[in-house]
C-alpha cells in the first residue's frame, strides 16, 4: 500500500462546544486528496473511525448516522463504498481498508479518523494499494466453516394481537393507537424485546449467541483471531439501565468470551453491518492472516423506540453470531466468491437517531432525555421510491459480474425490513418462492441481525445445503447496500429458540 497524501484538521479553539466532526473530516480530506492527485469521484472506499455518537452534522439534536456517509456526500464521492469502524485505531483502519481493496479490486481508499469530544483532530490519508490485482494463483486456498446461532428472548415476546403487551407501560398505551391492520400490512405478528428487569442487555444477548456459535464450531474463544461486532444504537446499555457511548461492545464481548489474543473492532453499515462483517472476515481469511473469526450483531432497538410513531415500532430486539474457520482446500467449506456494494449518501439523513425529551411519549414514559429513532417527514415516500429497486440493483449487478442468472442460485438471503419489501425484491428479480425465506412474522425487523436470522432460517429449512450457491444481500437505512455470492459448505446451527447446543442441525458433518 502506498500513502499518497495526508492531512490533519485541528480546531482553533478546544473549547468550541459547537464544533462538529464532519467539518473537520471534510476539511482534512480535501488537501489529502489534492496531495494524492485523486478526485473525490475517483474514490472507491471511505472508511471512518469515530467515537462520539453525535456532532456528526451541524445539528446538536442529531445523534446519528455516523461519519462515513456524510463525508461521502460533502466530498461528492458518489462511487465510493463507505462504512464506519468503531473502537479501532488508525492502523487497523488502514489494514482493513487495504484488505478490502485487495479482494474487491479497489484502487483508491480514504480512511478518516474522526475527532472525539476530548481530542478534536482529524487524520486523513488518501492512498492506493501498490499491488491491487490478484491472479488466481495468489488467492489463498483456505475455506471456512460457517456456524451460527441466534438468541432472541422468547419469554419477553411482544404480541401485537394483544395491544402490544410488554414490560414497558408507555408501549402498552401507545400500542393501542396502532390498528391491527398496520401489523398485518407489514407481516408482523410478534417480536422480541430485551427484558432489562431481568438483567438482559445487548451484551448478554450477544454473549449467549457467540458462545453458542463457538460451541457449534468447536472453537475455543481463546483461539479466536478476530472479533467483529455491530449494534445500531449509539449507546451501550448497562445492566442497571445506565448508558454510555464508549467503549463499544466489541472489546467488552471479546473480554467476556476470553478471546484475549483476538483483534476486535466495531463495524457500522446500519442494517447491512453483518453482511459487511462477513466480507471483512473473509478478506482477512483469504489474506491468510486470520484462521478463526467471530462476527456478531446484537440489537436493542426497544430502547430507542418512539412508541407514538408507527414506523419506528416495526423493529425488535435480538442477536446473532457466526464463526468462520479457515479449513484445508479439500474440505467442504463456504467460500466467498464475489461481492458488489453501493453507497448512496443522498439518503443518509432519512433515518436518524435524535436527542430529545421522552416526556411526549406517554404518561408513563421515561422522563430522562434520550436518543430516539426518527424518520424525516418525507422518509416514507423517499424509501418507497428507492428501496424496492436498490437491493435488486446490487443483486443484478453481482449476478451480471459473475456471469450467472437467478436460476443458478439456490438461495437468496435478504435483509428483512418487512414481508412486503422482501416479496417486492423477489418479484423484481423473478425469484421462485423456494429460493428465499421471509423472517419477520415472529420477530419484526431486527436491523443488522435480520440477515443472519434469515440465513439461520434458510439453513434450518434446508433451503441452503452443502454445495448450494447462495446470495446474501443487505440494505443499511437507505444509504448502504451490498450483495455477496457464496458457494455454501459445512454448517452447523442451533434450532430456533431452543438455546441448546445439543439441539443443533448439522449439514454435511
From TrEMBL:
Keywords, in A-Z order: Acyltransferase, Transferase
Gene Ontology terms describing biological process: fatty acid biosynthetic process; secondary metabolite biosynthetic process
Signal sequence region: none
Ranges where the Beta-ketoacyl-[acyl-carrier-protein] synthase III C-terminal domain occurs: 399-488
Keyword Transferase among UniProt keywords: yes
Pfam families: ACP_syn_III, ACP_syn_III_C
Domain Beta-ketoacyl-[acyl-carrier-protein] synthase III N-terminal per the UniProt entry, residue ranges: 268-344
Molecular function GO labels: 3-oxoacyl-[acyl-carrier-protein] synthase activity
InterPro entries, sorted: ACP_syn_III_C, ACP_syn_III_N, Thiolase-like
Superkingdom of the organism of origin: Bacteria
Enzyme Commission identifier(s): 2.3.1.41
UniProt cross-references to Gene3D superfamilies, sorted A to Z: 3.40.47.10
Identification of the protein by name: Beta-ketoacyl-acyl-carrier-protein synthase I
Organism: Burkholderia ambifaria MEX-5
Amino acid at each position: 500500500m502506498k500513502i499518497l497524501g495526508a492531512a490533519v484538521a485541528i480546531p482553533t479553539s478546544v473549547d468550541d462546544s459547537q464544533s462538529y466532526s464532519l467539518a473537520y473530516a471534510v476539511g482534512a480530506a480535501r488537501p489529502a486528496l489534492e496531495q494524492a492527485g485523486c478526485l473525490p469521484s475517483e474514490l472507491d472506499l471511505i472508511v471512518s473511525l469515530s467515537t462520539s455518537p453525535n456532532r456528526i452534522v451541524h445539528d446538536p439534536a442529531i445523534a446519528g448516522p455516523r461519519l462515513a456517509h456524510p463525508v461521502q456526500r460533502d466530498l461528492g464521492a458518489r462511487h465510493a463504498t463507505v462504512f464506519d469502524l468503531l473502537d479501532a485505531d488508525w492502523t487497523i483502519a488502514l489494514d482493513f481498508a487495504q484488505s478490502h481493496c485487495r479482494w474487491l479490486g479497489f484502487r483508491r481508499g480514504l480512511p478518516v479518523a474522526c475527532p472525539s469530544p476530548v481530542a478534536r483532530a482529524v487524520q486523513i490519508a488518501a492512498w492506493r494499494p501498490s499491488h491491487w490485482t490478484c491472479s488466481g494463483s495468489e488467492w489463498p486456498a483456505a475455506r471456512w466453516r460457517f456456524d451460527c446461532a441466534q438468541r432472541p428472548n422468547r419469554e419477553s415476546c411482544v404480541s401485537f394481537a394483544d395491544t402490544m403487551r410488554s414490560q414497558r407501560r408507555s408501549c402498552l398505551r401507545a400500542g393501542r393507537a396502532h390498528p391491527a391492520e398496520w401489523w398485518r400490512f407489514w407481516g408482523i405478528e410478534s417480536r422480541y424485546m430485551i427484558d432489562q428487569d431481568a438483567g438482559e442487555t445487548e451484551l448478554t444477548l450477544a454473549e449467549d449467541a457467540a458462545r453458542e456459535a463457538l460451541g457449534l464450531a468447536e472453537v475455543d474463544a481463546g483461539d479466536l483471531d478476530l472479533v467483529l461486532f455491530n449494534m445500531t444504537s449509539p449507546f451501550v446499555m448497562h445492566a442497571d439501565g445506565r448508558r454510555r457511548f464508549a467503549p463499544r461492545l466489541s472489546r467488552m464481548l471479546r473480554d467476556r468470551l476470553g478471546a484475549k489474543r483476538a483483534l476486535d473492532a466495531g463495524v457500522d453499515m446500519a442494517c447491512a453491518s453483518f453482511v459487511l462483517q462477513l466480507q471483512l472476515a473473509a478478506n482477512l481469511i483469504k489474506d491468510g492472516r486470520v484462521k478463526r473469526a467471530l462476527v456478531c450483531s446484537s440489537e436493542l432497538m426497544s430502547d430507542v423506540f418512539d412508541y407514538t410513531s408507527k414506523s419506528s415500532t416495526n423493529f425488535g430486539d435480538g442477536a446473532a453470531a457466526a464463526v468462520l474457520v479457515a479449513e484445508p482446500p479439500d474440505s467442504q467449506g463456504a467460500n466467498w466468491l464475489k461481492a458488489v456494494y453501493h453507497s448512496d449518501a443522498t439518503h443518509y439523513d432519512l433515518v436518524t437517531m435524535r436527542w430529545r425529551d421522552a416526556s411526549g411519549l406517554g404518561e408513563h414514559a421515561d422522563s430522562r432525555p434520550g436518543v430516539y429513532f426518527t424518520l424525516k417527514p418525507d422518509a416514507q415516500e423517499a424509501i418507497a421510491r428507492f428501496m424496492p429497486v436498490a437491493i435488486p440493483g446490487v443483486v443484478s449487478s453481482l449476478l451480471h459480474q459473475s456471469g450467472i442468472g437467478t436460476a443458478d442460485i439456490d438461495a437468496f438471503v435478504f435483509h428483512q425490513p418487512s414481508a412486503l419489501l422482501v416479496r417486492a425484491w423477489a418479484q423484481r428479480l423473478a425469484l421462485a418462492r423456494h429460493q428465499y425465506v421471509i423472517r419477520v412474522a415472529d420477530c419484526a425487523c431486527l436491523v443488522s441481525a435480520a440477515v443472519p436470522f434469515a440465513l439461520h432460517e434458510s439453513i434450518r429449512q434446508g433451503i441452503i445445503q452443502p454445495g448450494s450457491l447462495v446470495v446474501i444481500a443487505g440494505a443499511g437505512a437507505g444509504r448502504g447496500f451490498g450483495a455477496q455470492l457464496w458457494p455454501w459448505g459445512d454448517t452447523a446451527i442451533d434450532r430456533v429458540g431452543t438455546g441448546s447446543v445439543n439441539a443443533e442441525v448439522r449439514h454435511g458433518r
